[in-house]
Each structure stands twice: as structure tokens, then as C-alpha cells.
Amino acid sequence: MAEPEQDLKPHATPSSSQGEGWGEGDFLDEDVTTTEAEERISVATAGQLMWWRFRKHRLAMVSAVVLIIFYLVVIFAPFLAYVDPELSEAQRSLMPPQPVHLFREGRFEPHVYAVKGARDPKTFKRVYVTDPNTVIPLRFFVKGFPYKLLGVIPSDIHLLGVEGVPVEEALFILGTDLNGRDLWSRLMFATQMSLTIGLAAVAISLFLGVLLGGISGYFSGTVDTLIQRVIEILRSLPTIPLWMGLAAALPGSWPVQRVYLAITIIISLLGWTELARVVRGRFLTLREEDFITAAELAGCSRMRIIFRHMVPSFLSHIIAATTLAIPAMIISETSLSFLGLGLRPPAISWGVLLEQAQNIQALAISPWLLLPAIPVILAVLAFNFVGDGLRDAADPYG
Amino acid sequence: MKATQDQLLLEVKNLRKFFPIRRGFLQRIVGQVRAVDDVSFFIRPGETFSLVGESGCGKTTTSRCILRAVRPTSGQILFRTGDGRVVDVAALSADELKPLRREMQMIFQDPFSSLNPRMTLLDIVGEPLLVNGMTDRAARTERVAELLKLVGLRPEYMRRFPHAFSGGQRQRIGIARALALHPRLVVADEPVSALDVSVQAQILNLMLDLQSELGLTYLFVAHDLSVVKHISERVAVMYVGRLVEMAPTQDLFYTPKHPYTEALLSAVPKPDPRLRSKRIVLQGSVADPANPPSGCYFHPRCRYAADICSRATPTLVELEPGHFVACHRAAELKLTGVV
Amino acid sequence: MNDQRTPLLSVRDLKTYFFQDEGTVKAVDGASFDVARGQTLGIVGESGCGKSVTARSILRIVEAPGRIVGGQILWYDAKGQPTDLTQLDPDGHQMRSLRGREIGLIFQEPMTSFSPVHTVGNQIIEAIRLHMGVSKAEARRRAIEALRQVGIPQPERRIDDYAFQLSGGLRQRAMIAVALSCDPRLLIADEPTTALDVTTQAQILDLLRELQQQRGMAIMLITHNLGVVAEMCDDVVVMYLGRVVEVGSVDAIFHQAKHPYTRALLRSIPAITTPPRVKLHTITGSIPHPYNRPSGCPFHPRCPERLRGLCEVAEPALRAVGNGQSVSCFLYENRA
């Protein structure tokens, strides 16, 4: 048993310089000088192969970076905001975005100019005049309104601030809304709300979809027929009237966020059907695969077959499905809030911010109110591209 | 059958597997596909027994019934276990089946779908060991290395994933997995038909070597008669769910007794242009197992068919020692085998 | 048949490469052979040898990222005038009228070559009308006749069936009927019987032979099954990794094979006529992955007779060794 050991070591023959990694047969006579790259691919796990493929998908990679930035904003929203988003002041109503100057007298010294508001005596419109003589220097990591990071860590440090005057009177990066609230700060909080409130719903749909789809596909028979009929009934329910009814039915004393969360969760209890169908289909095809039969014949338990063999085979598909479900959730929040059915003030979300841009007149006078549409588009596109990239990368053996 | 009970490893008696045909909204059963219809045969320990036939003849279903990957409709599958008991595999519950699994293993046709692409060779070949109680990782690794060497693969490969291997190498991996638990019966379902010609020979040689080394018994399921002839000691021919002829390889190939076997042998193209001959070309196509003809299923295509063939179903009889045939006219016919 | 010596199709140094992210796959790399009028040429080889890509190149239906990068495919028309198919626009009028009209094609899997939403008859009628320009009624009459000729029972009824309603054998017959409906001069059959059972295979091979005798068309039979080649072909081309390694008459290939690959391949198949349970000869190793094509002669790493210092460096050219046989191997360089 012991003596063939040295024969097993790779030995070079002059003729077999390449292409032998695929060799087979009488391995004692054969050379296996695999290149390093080949060896790396040979021992690569499914996850690694998926990552290598995903990396090649340039648009998805860029989108992934965009999403990471978005979720950093979600975490650090109060730090990035510089004014309390609820702070309103009629004197600063509908102020346009203010340019930030980076250099003064050849040196890097970011600053803004003071802005003075006055009412136009003829039109009664508020007009804002920049005063180029009053320079207000920008400062980083300054104290401002107090907040709790992630709801726990108390802090009052903000990324931006100004020197000399209260920040709410001097800094308007994206301008203000009708009530004089700072749009940049509100956008930070809106991002936090819009990108998180639906996640619970997606998670619930995911869980139910995988569970019920898996049961349906694995056990088939009566259970399968029953679940399939339930899916068909659920899919025939119209969402928007249901949404409106629920919005009316929930206790009026609840804060808006909680009402919204409750509604999304109820909707998600109906929204698992799509994923359940996909999962069921995967289970049905997988059950016919030879490697599943082989596992059965080896004596594997049912649980081992499901969790060791079947679930990993479509996990990547589920990840892709999820990344595609999140933008749908963002769009529905935005559009429902825009229609006044979803979140309502005082909650702050992208849809709530955009609701202010409903009025054509307001838009004509203050087009910057449409700015919150940009992150909506960016986030939805980024999620879709990442989802596409993941889906393409998901099957490295395809 | 003549062979006495205690010589046999496996005896299949009157095996039937019918698949219901369901139609309509309520999925009512409107008919049955008689995939395996009253099949009886036996396998002796240490031999290679082949089931041959064309697609849809029930050979694969028969083999899956024996492994209980499919539950038979009726009939007995008597298997002699390592400790000498004879159990009816067809009647066992799932729990009773588990200890038996290690004695019967399978080699699959498709070297790609039979290996989980997300597991390394160590996990694939080691899985039967793990789920059957070899929980010590070091011991398992050692046994996997041994098995890989046995099938001609380098043990160093065990950290690799199946995607790094060619079809022939993957088939070797599948064989290593099948042998992990020291099975006594190995069911090989078309193990070489998905492989390239030059690789087929390697796998066939490996299977023959392993048989003599480990004393394995093979149930070989295939449609390629040349391969079957090469590897088997006894052969059974199936047609539309029934066994039509069973004999030692030489007898079956040189002196076939069933007209279907004769036609099958004649249809195989011989790799020698000097042996071109007039073939017996069967008319029509294989009978529908959901709606088979009366009497002998082969009679509409049989050039020797007589009146009785459409009326009565022939039974499998032992015409010569070890040579079984199900044909009314078998005794009188002089059929040609391989020339 | 007075122009027996001019071929129908002449492939010269054909190169079809696939340009992929992972690298260039030289699927066909310098293949040369002739298809004689009214004869059957077999192209044999294992997976990755380029036999199917050769057929697709001739028909100019190579899919991207594949491209013909060199060589000539000379098609000789009824007057013996050559046209180089590599110079034609693959979607142009001339190429389209050659495909289907002059060159018929049958594939391995007949199911996927039929549209599931049209009846079999409609697809034949369409082909006939496209190439022959006859009336609908006449085309239907010819289609029924074509189905009858390929041995489909009750063609008047079967013509209105969909492909999925036919059995594998009947479907392959219908496929042949489509290919032959316009009376082509060359039939390219790519693994026509691989998906079929032996008895059905025998039926289809008989049918092809019969139709060939009636119509005098040439057949280019692409297969990996040496038995089918021995039964059907007049001449044989053996390919390995995109290169033609040997060409010769069927008798020469099976009885006086010259190339070590051809000889090893013939020795490694279990034949129904050989004694059972003996060790088969094997070819060591397996077919290299197309990205990892060996240098020099592509067969050298597996060749038992390789000449050290030569075979792994230089690529042998295909040269005649007499008797109409050619081989590309350094073992025969001096004897030619």
C-alpha cells in the first residue's frame, strides 16, 4: 500500500508540457502539471466562481458600489444631515440650492456666501439674494443637533457645519421646501426610511415563499395541489384597493411609520406567491437530478437532502430574486406615498418628499423639489443591475 | 426457475410497475402505462447480468425498482444480504431499507448531473460514509483517498470540485462513490453511453478490473449491444415492459431464440465494412406500453408471427439449460445470431 | 455520372475559430476533404473534433462568436463551376438558395428542428414553395409524396400532425422528408441516428441508402459511431481536435488505418463480433479541453508512437500515402 506513494507525485515528461490537467486514465503514467490558475479554478467553491463571474459584470459591480454608498447613507443619515429635518421656518421657504465654493484666494477653503431673503413688493414672492461679501466658511465634523446613531449611540457630531452663524440660517446645499425645511437633511432621512421600511416585507415574503414553495415541490400530491390553489387565489387579489382598505382599517392612533409597516407586512403575507412558484419549480427539477437520487441511495435523510443538496443549488437564485424584489418595494413605497396612500408627513421618505412636487406651479417655481427623484432612479437601477449580475453569475455551471 | 435459492444474490419475481395516466382537472386515472409487466429473473453473486432493450422497454424502471428508487406496483425482489438473510426489497419500509442501501449502489448514466456541482470530491465520495456512521473526518478522508486511487484518480484531487474534471473522470468519481460502502450489487445504468468512444473503453476496463478485485456483482442496464456483449455473463432482453429472452451471453448472441433478439442483433451496425450484410429491418415502431397489442407484444412486427401470437401471451420458459425465452414458436424457429 | 472525378464539394484548409472571453477555440483548424458526387462521405471523431462545426461552416450557419477565418469551401454546380462558399454573404440570396435547395440538412435531435406551432406538413410545404416556387396545392401534393417516400404511413393524415405527435423514428423520417423535399444534391446528416434506438437506426440508415440510390445525391454523414460509418460510407474522414488526421476509403480506414489515433480508436471499441470480457485497448488520457490544445500534433500527448522532439513541436501536414489514402502523421512523412 505504501510503496506507490512516490509514483503519485507529479513527474514531468518532456512531451507533456501543457493540457494535461484534463488527463485521466492510468494516472500513474500521467503527468498533472496543472498551472496555478487551473488549480485555483479546480478548487474554487460555488461562491468563489459566482464572485468571479459577478466581477466581470461591470455594470453590476458599479451598481453594487452605489448600493453600498446608499446603505452607508442609511446608517449615517443623521450624521450626514446638518439640520434637524423637522425644523421649519417660513422665512426660508423655497430657497434654491446654494453653490458651495471650494477655493478662496487660491487655497482650499470651502465656503458659501450668505443669503438674504426679501419679499418682492410686486409679486409677493420671496426672493433670495446672495451677498458675496459675507463669506461663511464650511467646517467638517462640527457639533449640531443631537441624535442617536442607529437609535443607540448618542452623538451630536455632523459631517458639515458652518462657522459663526447657526447652520440652519446659512447652509442650503439642495435648497429648502415650502416650509423652509432643509432638503439635503430631509433627503438623508428619507433615504433611511425608504431603503429600510420594505426590507421586513421582503424578508417575510422570502421566508414564506421558500418554505411553502419547498413544501409544495418536495412533497407534491395533495399538499402541493392545496398550496397551488391558495397561490392562485392570492394572486387574483388586487393590491391597491386592499392597501387603501387596510390603511383605513388600521387604528388611527398609530404613528404613520407603524401603519405603513403593518400594511407592508400584510401585503408581504400575500406577496410570497411568485417566489413560492419559482422555488417549487426548482425543487421539482432538482428531485429528478441524478445526484439527488444518488444521495437517497447513499442513505441520506430527507433533511440532509433538502439542506445539503437542494437548497444550496438554488440559494443563488433566491439571492437574485431578492435583489429584484427590493426595487419593486422601493417603487411601490414611493408611488403610494406620492399618491398619499403610503407614508404621510410627518414621516419622511422619498415618496413624501416627491409629494411636494405634485403641483406643476410649485415645480415651475422651485424645480429642485424634484431632486429626490434622482436617488429613487439610482437605487432602483442599481438594485436591478446587481440582481441581473447575480442572476447571470448564479449558475457558474450553466 | 432451476437455480436454487441459496446460489442467488437477487431474485426478481413477477415484478410489475404501472404508472397511472392522469387527465383533467381532478387528475382522474384514465389508464396505466405498464412500464414493467411481470418480469422475473435472477442474478448470481459475482456475475454481470445485463438488461437490454430499446428506450421505453422498462429496463431502467426495473433497475430503479430493485434499488427502490421507485416503488414497485407488485411482485417480489428477493435480495440476499451480507449476513445471509433473504429480504424482499419490494416490501420494505423506508426505515428498513436504510441498512440495505449500503449493499446496493448505483452508477449513473450522466456523469454531469450525477455529481453535485457544489460539493468537493471528498464530500461527494465521502457522503455515503458520513451518513452511514463514519463521522471521523480523518478516517473518511483516508477512505476517500483509497477509493479515488482504486478508480484511477489522484487522491490529491479530492479538494477539487467536479467542474474541474472531464466526463470520463467524473464517471470514475461516480464509481468511487458507488463503491464507498462496499456494496455487493452495483446497478450500472448506461454507464458508458454518455462518454466518448475512446473513454468508454477505459471505463469498461475499470469496471471489469473492479469486479475481479472486489468480487462485485453487476446489474448492467444498456441499449448498446456491443457493450453488453463485452461486459456481461448473462443477458436478458426486454420489450415493452416484458422479458422476452434471457440466456448466457454467448448463447444469446450466437443462438438467439426470440425473433426480437434476432432483429436487435441484426440491427447493430458492425464496425467492419467487409461485414456489410442485409439486415432484418423491423417494420413499424415499438408498441405503446399504455395500449399494448394483444397476445405477444411483438407479434405485429414479427416476421414469424402465427395465429396464436395475437391471441395468447407467451410465458418465459427454459428451452435449453439457462436459456429462457418467451415465444410460442421458439422451439421450431431457427434464428440467426451474430455472424 | 461522367464527371465522376470532379467532386461536388471541396473543403480546403478550412479554419473556423470561436473567439470567446476565455480564449480562442480552434474548432476547425485546417480541414481538407472532398465530397464526391453521389457518394457517402463519413466524418468521424469524438466530441470536440470539429465535425459538426465543419458542417455548419459549409452551410454558413456558424453561430457567433464563431467565424470562418480561413480556407475555401468550393461548391461545384451542375456544370462543374466552383463557387467559394466562404466568400458568400451567409444571409444573402445565393447562400439561402443553396441551403435547403441544393444542400439538405438533418440534425441529431429532430424535435428541436421542428417548430412546435406549425404542423410538419406546413414546414415541408413552406420549404417547397420557397425553393421551387410552385402553387400551394402542388406543394402540398409534393409534401405528401415526400412523406410517403420516407416511409411515413398514411401521409395524407400525418401531414397535418405536429412534430410532438410523432414518435422519434417518424420525426426523423419527417426531418429527412423536409431535407429531401427540394431534391438536394448533397445531404448533410449530423448524427442522424444518435438519438434513436438500434432498430429505428437500422430503418433510418436503410431509408437513407435507398433514397441515395434513387436520387444519386451525395451524403455527408457526421457521426461518432464507427459501426454506422462502416455500414454506410464510401469514404471516411477522421478528425481529432479540429484537424483531419486521416482520409481514405472505408475499407482502407477500417483495415489499413495508418494514423495512430484511427488505429487506437478502432481497437478501443467493443464490437458485437469481438470476444467478450477481454480487456479493451484504451487510448490513455482524455481529449484535451479545447482551450488547452496541445502544441504540435494535437494527438501527441496520447499517442503511443510519438516521436520525441518532433511531434510536440511541429504539426504534421496531411499527405497522400497511396491508394487514395492520406494521413497527417510524421510516421509516414518519408514513405509518401
Question: How much beta of chain C, percentage-wise?
Answer: 15-25%
3D shape of chain C: globular
Percentage of residues assigned to helices of chain B = 25-40%
| Topology, number of strands of chain B | 12
Q: Within the CATH hierarchy, at the fold level, what is the topology of the domain at 5-103 and 185-196 and 216-325 in chain B?
A: Rossmann fold
Note the run of SSEs of chain C as H and E.
Answer: EEEHEEHEHHHHHEHEHEEHHEE
What is the class of the largest domain in chain C in the CATH system?
Answer: Alpha Beta
Please give the domain count of chain C: 2
Q: Provide the structure class of chain B.
A: alpha/beta
Structural class of chain C: alpha/beta
Give the CATH level 1 class of the domain at 5-103 and 185-196 and 216-325 in chain B. Answer: Alpha Beta
Task: Please name the CATH architecture of the domain at 5-103 and 185-196 and 216-325 in chain B.
Answer: 3-Layer(aba) Sandwich
- Work out the oligomeric state of the chains in this entry: heterotrimer
Distance between the termini of chain C: 31 Å
Describe the model.
The complex is a heterotrimer of chains A (398), B (339) and C (336). With 398 residues, chain A is of the alpha+beta class. Helices cover 54% and strands 13% of the residues of chain A. The longest helix of chain A is centred in the C-terminal third of the chain and has 37 residues. Chain A is elongated and about 85 Å long. Chain B is α/β, with parallel strands linked by helices and 339 residues long. Chain B has a domain of 221 residues: Rossmann fold. Helices cover 29% and strands 24% of the residues of chain B. In chain B, the strands form 2 sheets. Chain B has an 8-stranded mixed sheet, with helices on both faces. Chain B has a 4-stranded antiparallel sheet with strand order 2-1-4-5. The radius of gyration of chain B is 21 Å and the shape is globular. By secondary structure, chain C is an alpha/beta fold. Chain C is built from 11 helices and 12 strands. In chain C, a hairpin with a 5-residue loop joins strand 11 and strand 12. In chain C, helix 4 packs across helix 5. Chain C starts with 8 loop residues before the first strand and ends in a 9-residue tail after the last strand. Chains in contact: A-B, A-C, B-C.
